[in-house]
Amino acid sequence: MRTSQKYLKLFPKGLPTVIAVVSCLLLIMPAKAHAEQKKKIGLNNATFETVIKEIEKVFSVNFTYDAAMKQLQQKVSLQQKERTLAEVLSELAKQVNVKFIRAGNLIGIQEKTALYQLSAYESPAVAGAPPFLLKGRIIDEKKNIAVANATIHVKDSKTYTTSDEDGNFSIEVLQGDVLEITSVGYAAKEVTIGNSNEIIINLSSSENQLNEVVVTALGIKKERAKINYATQEVKGESLQKAKEANVISSLTGKVAGLTVVNKSTLYENQDVRVRGEATLVVIDGVPTNTNFWNINADDIESVTVLKGTAAAALYGSLGVNGAIMITTKKGKGGSNGLEVSFSSTNQFQAGYIAIPKTQQEYGMGWSGYYAYIDGQGGGGWYDNYGYVWGPKLNVKDPNTASGYAEYPQYNSPYNPDSLYTFTQAGYTGQSHYKPMPWVSRGTNNLKNFLRNEFLTTDNISVAGKTDRTDYRISASHVYQKGQVPNTHLNSTTLTVAGGLKISDKLRAEATISYNKQYTPNYPSSGYGPSNFFYNILLWMGPDVDIRDMKNYWQPGKEGIQQLTYNYSWYNNPYFMANEYLNSYNTDVITAQANATYSFSKNLNLLVRTGATVNNVSEDTKTPYSFINYGTSKAPFGQYAIDRRGTVRIVSDALLTYQNKFGDFDVTVSAGASSRFDQANGLYSNTVGGLAVPNNYTLANTRDPLNSTNYLNEKQYMSLFGYSDISYKNIVYLSLTGRNDWTTALQKPNNSFFYPSAGLGLMVSQLVKLPSAISWLKLRSAWANVSSDVNPYYTLQTYNRGIRWNGVPSLDVPSTLINPDIRPQTTISQEYGGEIKFLKNRIGLDVTYYRYLNKNFVVDVPLSQASGYSYRRVNADEILKKGIEIVLSGTAIKTKNFQWNIVANYSRIRNTAKSYYGGDSIRNGVKIGERNDVYRGYAWERSPDGRQVFSNGLPQYINQIVNLGYLNPDWEFGIINSISYKNFSLSFTFDGQIGGYMFNGVEAKMYEGGMHPVTANHYRDEAYNGEKTYLVPGVVVTEGEVTYDQQGNITSDTRKFAANETNVNYIDYIFAQYTNGVDESVLYKRTFVKLREVVFSYNIPATLFKKAPFKAASIALTGRNLALFTKVPFMDPESYTGTTLAEPTYRNIGVSVNFTF
């Protein structure tokens, strides 16, 4: 099916939105930049003051300066000709030792050698002088932007005012008065008034960053000081040098409370959680559904994590677990109104930080025997057994031509007319396969199979800006070569964004992004014959050299029968890589358009709509002779298609009023929103195999096709509002409310209200603190947010039954639906504070939160007499508590050198508060105890911890018990940033402490005989039938023990003696590691990673005089450089359960960036 047809089918309701967005983009594509108007001006040998007055007349501007400035009488000359104002000022600055600071039509003049700023006018008080109205503007001295809401106070008086959004103010003063200017985030300043009635005041940042604008819910921008909940921002530039294929990986460790579980397998989705839960992703104010693969790092301006329920309450149920707010780059221009940027990053694999190691001394087989006949058990000696408990390798034998023991093997020469005789452990056998030396050929099979991974990302963008328009066009491509042969990923993104100032009151913006991801083959990480590492790591002995298997078809049976070492269980890995293909093709369109109309200075209306369309096409080609488990075996191959699509359309309108009433700043807003979600899919596969080999079409099925499809839709309608009130920049109150109506729940439960409130107190503005404390703010927030259920989850339906005499039937499902299901509710409380010490050199942000989650929708057991097994109800309450700490500081700061450190810490605890039906314990968790319990089987032990044996073998407790907790004790990240002149170095450590994991790979390595520990003399003795292995422990001589549901001993009358029974080593290994006792391979998931290192150099602009670009940088990068853990063989971050993830590799590379 054509892509365009899929979009039209998927997007009937959203097509007008896409058309509107595209139309808006076409409207706002900027016209040619208008150059600043040139005017004729010229004076010869005139005073600087005379020239200034002439410029004021010609260009209609006003200058402000100190009348006593000696440069005013300096003689200057301007040749008579047409110039722009900027050209005039530039020429004057070369003749006079001053600098010009321009703010619109107001231009300040400052002596370059002055020790005070332009605004520091000094003039003696004039006795009896009349008051006059002073007009001025407050400017950020570094960014040259307006400072809004600054407080201007005439010292020793009760006269106050504040600057407006453009930084302008007016206040009645006397000549000689002193103005005190304060603004959150800036150093306080005093300015003495001279005789001018206009003034520009430059404020310097106090480096506390509270004046920074933070993107909050609904894309609303607020000053940090006004935010009463925990947030943390990461600048886009920190994600754009040491890149990952999936941009979310670059956020690992950089935000307290944000957990990114990175996967090492190519194209596997990362797990992203905020405070332990999956979270909402918002791009430019529009909620979207994304796995981050379609987001280009070079398009990101910033990422803000709203951590709490209160932070994202305006998003309703979507924001119950906070939100990740992504703000994309917008248009900006260089000196000619145009800026072109190019960046390229290339990273190469440099070894592994975690890769399993196997024993190299024993080959395939069982109990010391192996001889290949047909690989299916047809007379061979354990040639279909699948274990690596066979004869010892590299054993000398003087009776053979090779000098080593020789046995028939899978790739031995075959002669159907001859029988070859061989001897093994005293037994004689015969085979049509010629015996070959039994030696260790595959000492590095896993490494020899894998390739070096490679990742390259390229981006080019064109941006421009004029007085009325701005635009940015960006194109990027990501190519990742996988470790597994014949696997790679391509991802291409094209983004167009623009804005148009239609009038002084109306501005429109739009963005559209198209992303295409394609891989012809990506590896499976699940356990089983379709996984490469299952076939190599666990069950392929070192007697097989993986490189000998590259020719994977049996001679004369190409396309029909693979060549492998075991035809009962294991596939040839090269056959898998080249013939068993899982292709993935996805197209993602994200688009949004908005318009803002300003009715007045205080009142504006925002109207916005956005859409995300995602189409996925997956094909699985299973070749002839593919080996799978049991009934899933596919000797004749299979072809399957999986087509999935999702659509999300979100539209909202927001009317906002802002004003100042005395000492109060008030913002009130009200709005409405709608959201439409659709998910559809079609799955089909051939049945009975392929009629013609290698013809992968559904029509090539042997038996009738198997097909299923689905269509889910859900609609939301919402009303919401919020209010922010601040008093003297000391007290900040925020209130929000939202009501949703959803189609997923039945009336009257389909309507629910979400209130939230926050309160902040700037203590440092209220009281005088010790000089060591720069500032201190306390904050608190509360929210009550509900979340609904999946579509149709509360509707009673019937299942399709079997056909009776060709007549279809319906079955009653096993679960009885309660139509009165209510939404799950989360009541959150959050308390925090932020403090800066030693002139902001050290900062500390601490947050404590408490969530009560109730009304979970669960299926509880029901009496079979009812005809059902379960009933769906609202049940259970879970209490979640956590703490987050962000410690920041500047360790060293000199003129050219600076070292900044940010440390993030987070901890979460979930406990059971109540159970449905009043139960006091469920699944081993009592009320009041942690519910993230790892439950499994454990070894029986004596009270002093010694393992209990019987007949020399370990004994386990015959019930599931609590073994530990899954969640970590705490997580952390440490980011170091060091700069020296044009050089910079950053490096990041992160990890987690505690939390248990089951190392299923290690258990299987023991079972298969591949674990390095199993290569010992006990194995040789076991092959001889000897029982020589003794494990220290005890045996029970009398008595018994009982346990409660959690595995705690309730009574114990046992008596013990030392274990003195030797056993066969193989019997012990199988008893210890293959009977499902989790405790045997249970580890703490503690790890620390050197996650990222970037060493960069900004090439000085002085070197660009003849170059076509105006800025350039180069960086050496590294990712996943080191791992510190006690978990054997595995990367505990990427490994879960018995999955067979690819080994985790380290990457080093180089990144270059040019701006034209």
Automatic annotation (TrEMBL):
It is found in: Cell outer membrane. It is a multi-pass membrane protein. Residues 43-107 form the Protein FecR C-terminal domain. This is SusC/RagA family TonB-linked outer membrane protein. Keywords: Cell outer membrane, Membrane, Transmembrane, Transmembrane beta strand, Transport. InterPro entries: Beta-barrel_TonB_sf, CarboxyPept-like_regulatory, FecR_C, Plug_dom, Plug_dom_sf, TonB-dep_OMP_SusC/RagA, TonB-dep_OMP_SusC/RagA_CS, TonB-dep_rcpt-like. The lineage of its organism: Bacteria, Pseudomonadati, Bacteroidota, Chitinophagia, Chitinophagales. Residues 226-323 form the TonB-dependent receptor plug domain. Transmembrane segments: none annotated. Belongs to the TonB-dependent receptor family. One of its GO terms (cellular component) is cell outer membrane.
